[in-house]
Write a structure and sequence with these properties.
With 587 residues, the protein is of the alpha+beta class. Helices cover 28% and strands 24% of the residues. The protein contains 16 helices and 23 strands. The strands form five sheets. Strands 6, 9, 10, 11, 12, 18, 21, 22 and 23 form a nine-stranded mixed sheet that branches. A five-stranded mixed β-barrel has the order 1-2-3-5-4. Strand 19 and strand 20 form a beta hairpin. Helix 4 packs antiparallel against helix 6 and helix 8 packs antiparallel against helix 10. The chain is globular, with a radius of gyration of 30 Å. The N and C termini lie far apart (66 Å). Its main location: cytoplasm.
């Protein structure tokens, strides 16, 4: 028999009754019922129940051991009997009469419960992540991630893509976040940057003639944590294709996402094909550029209705309305509750009216609406008896953010929210540029390497804020999975695009010398995308926090509490790297 096990803890069935077996695993749980010990033994594959009876060596050994001790147990498979079958366990028809027991790894008293969610805080869980990962939910999430990545590789290869690796030590690049930098011992005073994304390298692979590339790529960004973003590092499915237009990129990615989410989504329906929604339309209808299309409500821009109004709350402001049907039976607390929710999002309040059976409007602001206001709103919003309308007014960005959140919350509370589905969409036609409200400076609004729609002619003849890019996002259930673009592969268009954003020709030549040199030796039209693996798994696992799908994430302060990173370096090491520290002055 094998030194440690003849079977795993998820393998034995009723057909194995009478067999002598050897199992190894962790003491998951222990119960003393009338002097008989029942032990749940756990390994990667599952749980098997052990039975130890009084007076046996197994009882004496198992009775003294702490939970999470690793043991080897020899015993015989016996039937539980119909009345004692545990239908929740794959091994629930049998148990093991424990004989010889050997301790393989002793365990101290554990800092939190493994076999139940005891509400321990995240910092504690991350400090003892190796214990946290033993929990069933976390183990399931990590194995889901493993299966998803394996499936991505198989499906991308089947779609004709080739997996290639790109460098980790590289040069800094303006990807929209801060770089992590690595000092060079052999080149004193110089630094590598960890890649925020393999952007330039995957474009160079296209210029090198490889046509269809993919990689499960590690990316590094020195930015703050969010629920859907892990600080420090993350992984993305990096994709690039040659001789393509926008729809050519969409087709394989749409096929991949549909298959992935159907295979691993637990029966949740994937709506297909994915709609194409222009950026500006998305901002007006949904309040953001990552709409949750499970909410069956849309915002309507009614700024013009109140342009000359004497109603000061709306006059001279951007005004968005949210019509909600079938609210006749909703009590006053429904309206008050949405008002409180809007305040939590940053609003000063939430104006509303409701439509009665006779078509008249009632509510806090009904008296401020003129007959013309009511007529226009009724026609434009399609109002009928039972409708309610919520209003937001203020600056465009502020109103979009608040009313976008209210739209989804109202849909959930009013029964206009579709559960059990994955609703994808492509957000397209992003503006190439945006204006900084404080400085008035024109800057890139998306990826600076994108091809402008209309090419050089558009850059030279249009207002920069009207120029659209061949840029796109893929979103699912309100989560942005990826940005992508058809790339700017023509040097003169690149120089002009960066000039509009305030970069001199000399700066572009210095910062992107490698790319520009490559473009001058025959670059194909190309484009790509990079869906976030962490976010894909987060959606599939139905987890609200991305760190629940990563084996060893950093905490919100970009610290590894388990390994103690980041750490200080000894003076000798700093000298070797030619680094002198200047620590911040304590206030």
């Amino acid at each position: 028999m094998h030194r440690y096990r003849s079977h795993t803890c998820g393998e034995l069935r009723a057909s194995d009754v009478g067999t002598d077996v050897r199992l190894s695993g962790w003491l998951h749980n222990r119960r003393d019922l009338g002097g008989i010990l029942f032990i749940d033994l756990r390994d990667h594959y599952g749980i098997t129940q052990l039975v130890a009876r009084p007076g046996t060596a197994a009882f004496e050994a198992l009775d003294k051991l702490t939970k999470e001790t690793v043991v080897r147990v020899d015993g015989k498979v016996v039937s539980r009997g119909a009345e004692n079958v545990n239908a929740e366990l794959a091994t629930g028809e049998i148990e093991i009469e424990a004989g010889e027991v050997e301790v393989l790894g002793a365990a101290q008293q554990i800092p939190f419960t493994i076999n139940a969610d005891d509400g321990v805080n995240e910092e504690r869980r991350l400090e003892y992540r190796f214990l946290d990962l033993r929990r069933e939910r976390m183990h399931r999430n990590i194995m889901l991630r493993t299966a998803v990545i394996a499936a991505i590789r198989q499906k991308m290869t089947a779609l004709g893509f080739n997996e290639m690796a790109t460098p980790i030590l590289t040069a800094t690049s303006p990807e929209g976040a801060r770089d992590f930098v690595v000092p060079s011992r052999l080149n004193p005073g110089k630094f590598y940057a960890l890649p925020q994304a393999p952007q330039q390298f995957k474009q160079l692979l296209m210029i090198s003639g490889f046509d269809r590339y993919f990689q499960i790529a590690p990316c590094f960004r020195d930015e703050d944590a969010r629920a859907d973003r892990s600080p420090g590092e993350f992984y993305q499915l990096d994709v690039e294709m040659s001789f393509v237009e926008q729809e050519d990129v969409f087709r394989p990615i749409e096929k991949l996402m549909t298959e992935l989410f159907e295979e691993f989504g637990g029966g949740r329906h994937v709506t297909s094909p994915f709609p194409r929604i222009p950026f500006r339309e998305s901002m007006l209808k949904y309040g953001n550029d990552k709409p949750d299309l499970r909410a069956k409500l849309e915002l309507v821009d009614i700024t013009d209705v109140f342009a000359g109004s004497e109603f000061k709350a709306f006059a001279g402001k951007h005004v968005r309305a949210l019509p909600v049907p079938d609210t006749a039976a909703q009590p006053r607390k429904f309206f008050d509750g949405l008002g409180e929710f809007a305040v939590e999002q940053g609003a000063k309040g939430l104006a509303w009216v409701r439509v009665g059976e006779d078509g008249t409007l009632s509510g806090p602001i009904a008296k401020f609406l003129t007959e013309d206001n009511v007529k226009v709103l009724t026609e434009r919003l399609g109002l009928a008896a039972g409708h309610a309308v919520f209003f937001g007014a203020g600056e465009f960005g502020e109103v979009s953010k608040i009313m976008g959140a209210v739209r989804v919350e109202a849909a959930k509370r009013a029964g206009h929210f579709e559960e059990g589905v994955f609703r994808f969409a492509w957000i397209v036609d992003f503006p190439m540029y945006e204006k900084d409200e404080e400085t008035g400076k024109i800057d890139f609004s998306h990826n600076p390497f994108s091809m402008p729609q209309g090419g050089l002619e558009a850059l030279e003849n249009q207002d920069p804020l009207d120029v659209l890019g061949w840029q796109y996002d893929i979103v699912c259930n309100g989560v942005e999975l990826s940005s992508g673009a058809i790339r700017n592969h023509e040097p003169e268009i690149m120089f002009k695009a960066f000039e509009i954003a305030g970069y001199s020709r000399e700066t572009v030549e210095r910062e992107f010398a490698g790319m520009l040199r490559a473009f001058q030796f025959g670059a194909p039209p190309h484009g790509g995308i990079a869906p976030g693996v962490d976010r894909i798994v987060m959606l599939l696992a139905d987890e609200p926090n991305i760190r629940e799908t990563i084996a060893f994430p950093l905490n919100g302060n970009a610290q590894d509490l388990m390994m103690g990173a980041p750490t200080e370096l000894e003076e000798a090491r700093l000298r070797e790297l030619n680094i002198q520290l200047r620590k911040p002055v304590e206030k």
